Amino acid sequence: MEAKRFHKAMTFFYSKPVFSAVLIVFPLVLLVIFLSAGASISQRYLLPTPRRIFSPMEWMGKSEIWSVPRLSEWRPCDWWKDQYLLALPERTNGYIRVDCYGGLNQMRRDFCDGVGIARLLNATIVLPKFEAAAYWNETSGFADVFDVDYFIQQMRGFINVLKVVPDELASKEPVRVDCSKRKGPFDYIESVLPSLLEHRYISITPAMSQRRDRYPFYAKVALCQACYKALQLTKSLENKGSKLLAAIPKPFLSLHLRFEPDMVAYSQCEYSGLSPFSKEAIDATRGDRKPWTGDVARTWRKRGKCPLTPKETAFILQALNIPTNTNIYLASGDGLLERDSFTSVYKNVYAKSMLLGDKVLEMHGNTKAALDYYVSIHSDAYVATYFGNMDKMVAAMRAGMGFFENTFP
Asked: What is the pTM of this model?
């Protein structure tokens, strides 16, 4: 009798639309879980300036993939704003300058970490030194990208900030302190503080693997205020960003497509099917960074350490049922490789050079990256092909502004 009931139930399951629905919906749910770190790309389309609200069906088509709830979502984190601030010490232990290297958002991250470290050590933070990099045509400094006076005003009460050190220290360079192996607060107190007290003026580059969760409360507060509230683009860059944003047809998706020669070389990933030009450009940039091979290469790729190619990106966006006529702003660095394999599929692609013309030629790497950042945090949706420093910062800022449409394939 029980066997008959079981057979009847299974016959109903396999013969009715229920089974078909499960076959369709279950893979979609899995795809959303693995491909997305944010909320739905089509739940809301909000910008600071009023404009038409587009429904999910208008833009994204009828795919149900975007309406499936995520298991986890990024949410605004503003706990530090309402907390009681500890009074700053009457005397400073010295002055710290953060020396920043890499791309704009990596330098931004390091500077924010440096603010937390300076507060931890009861030090005064000096405006940072940005690396001058010939590869990116980069000579712009901190003041060329960020509003210095706004930063100082916003950090009042959180940490003391100086544009330049006092006269008795201004004539000499700060003493360089190696922080490559420093991670937690005790590392800095035990190893960096003595040098600060001895020399009074030091420079540091915070270790990449910071344990910010172990910082005391007052140091976390200073770091968060610097990172999320005090760093505002200069008025000139804000104006350029606003003009760029206004010129992009709405609604639009901002795509951070990382496939420049230096990025591919840094990833140490090997790609097949690239054009001879792309291979030559990558090989010329690799230097000592040879591609991974064998099991190491497979593990590296499975961990998401290999940037998606433009062709792979187009394939994934199509798989997510993002229409090929979607307006897409291409947030990418100079020298993007294999671009045609993306634009041959998605036709409505816009970039800085197309919308700003010759004005882009006058800009340096950091200021151009700042425009991509500005447009990306205000876009209707954000997709990143590599979860790097900019992508983490943009997703966090968008969450703070109430924009949750972020996807990281």
From this structure: 0.80
